[in-house]
Design brief:
The complex is a heterodimer of chains A (136) and B (187).
Chain A: H1 6-19, E1 24-26, E2 32-34, H2 37-51, E3 64-66, H3 67-74, H4 78-86, E4 93-95, E5 98-102, H5 103-131
Antiparallel strand pairs in A: 1-2, 3-5, 4-5
Chain B: E1 6-9, H1 17-28, E2 33-37, H2 38-51, H3 57-70, E3 75-76, H4 93-101, E4 106-108, H5 112-120, E5 126-128, H6 130-140, H7 142-155, H8 163-171, H9 175-186
Parallel strand pairs in B: 1-2, 1-4, 2-3, 4-5
Helix pairs in contact in B: 1-7, 2-3, 6-7, 6-9, 8-9
Classes of the chains: A alpha+beta (136), B alpha/beta (187).
Chain lengths: 136, 187
């Protein structure tokens, strides 16, 4: 935790505006290095937090995770993740004797699943209401 | 962030509309991983068509199609009866076999006889009623269960339906959860 002063907030706002056009850093020996887009995005998030007077922390997300971690990301159990891998729905590869899943594959499945599940539940509720199933 | 446990659901907890809605919405909230088999979904469909014989069967089949859509990653195939012993009645052995195949920690059934048989079979699976499961979820995360119930109540379109009416409807299948939710609202 650090105390963010009004001056810090102003400076963060100014740098944030400048970042819109990309960012470079200048090393101590005067070499200019272009920052990768992902790093600029992360830096923008930190500056946004500072500009708002909030503390920011950077969390590293691994490129790939275990089936147990994947299950937590999807909000399902590990056996379900294993079934999804076995059916070919979720790509995975072996590292030694363990399966590993790419985080980006998990997030794509999570987004697709969430939309599909929500839509199914909404249709079920609407139909039940229309058919009077709740009154039976 | 932890992965939820597997609860294999028997047909008798998915046929009652409010109970089914609760279980699937709890699954959507990540409280529990509801798993079924094709045979169970077939039983749900047969029961719905029988129980609501005055309604268009196609509409009731659509409800099961939506359930299948919701549970697309949670439908297990059962090869054989595996470790299920003779102590489980023949008619329900497929349910227990599917639950074991799914790696379920809990078998949710309102069939007391089946629950007793599973207890006696010394399997690794814990049998419980839908209300027991609801109560367990409430104990684990009452805030999220409460949000699930609020969402279900919010989806009801009837203007005249009060929270009390909804709790009463809920109490027919999930009495302990309905009571806990009502008591929470009073606090």
């Amino acid at each position: 935790m650090s105390i963010i002063t009004d001056e810090d907030r102003d400076r963060a706002r100014r740098v944030l505006g400048a970042l819109e056009h990309g960012a470079q850093i200048v090393t101590s020996d005067g070499v200019r290095v272009e920052l990768p887009v992902a790093a600029v995005a992360a830096l923008s998030d930190v500056l946004e937090a500072t500009a708002a007077g909030d503390d920011a922390i950077v969390v590293r997300t691994p490129e790939e995770v275990s089936t147990e971690q994947g299950a937590a990301v999807l909000g399902v159990s590990r056996p379900t993740v294993v079934r999804m891998i076995d059916s070919g729905r979720l790509p995975a590869h072996m590292v030694g004797t363990h399966r590993r899943v790419q985080l980006r594959d998990l997030l794509a499945v999570r987004d697709e699943t969430a939309g599909r599940r929500r839509a199914a539940l909404d249709r079920m509720a609407e139909d039940a209401e229309e058919l009077g199933l709740y009154d039976s | 962030m932890t992965a939820p446990f597997v609860a294999f659901c028997d047909a008798d907890v998915l046929v009652p509309i409010v109970c089914c809605d609760f279980l699937l919405t709890a699954a959507e909230a990540g409280l529990v991983d509801v798993v079924v088999s094709e045979v169970v979904l077939g039983e749900v469909e047969r029961n719905l068509v029988e129980n609501f014989a005055h309604l268009d069967p196609a509409r009731l089949r659509r409800r099961v199609a939506d359930m299948r859509d919701f549970l697309a990653d949670q439908i297990v195939e059962v090869g054989g009866l595996g470790a299920v012993g003779d102590v489980v009645n023949e008619k329900d052995r497929h349910v227990v076999a599917a639950a074991l195949e799914a790696g379920a920690e809990v078998l949710v059934t309102n069939d007391r006889r089946l629950r007793d048989e599973v207890e006696r079979d010394s399997l690794t699976i814990r049998p419980m009623s839908a209300d027991d499961l609801g109560n367990l979820l409430w104990t684990i995360d009452s805030d999220t269960v409460s949000e699930v119930l609020e969402a279900l109540f919010g989806k009801r379109r009837s203007d005249s339906l009060t929270r009390r009416d909804f709790a009463e409807m809920l109490s027919r299948h999930l009495p302990t959860v309905a009571r806990a939710w009502s008591n929470r609202a009073k606090d």
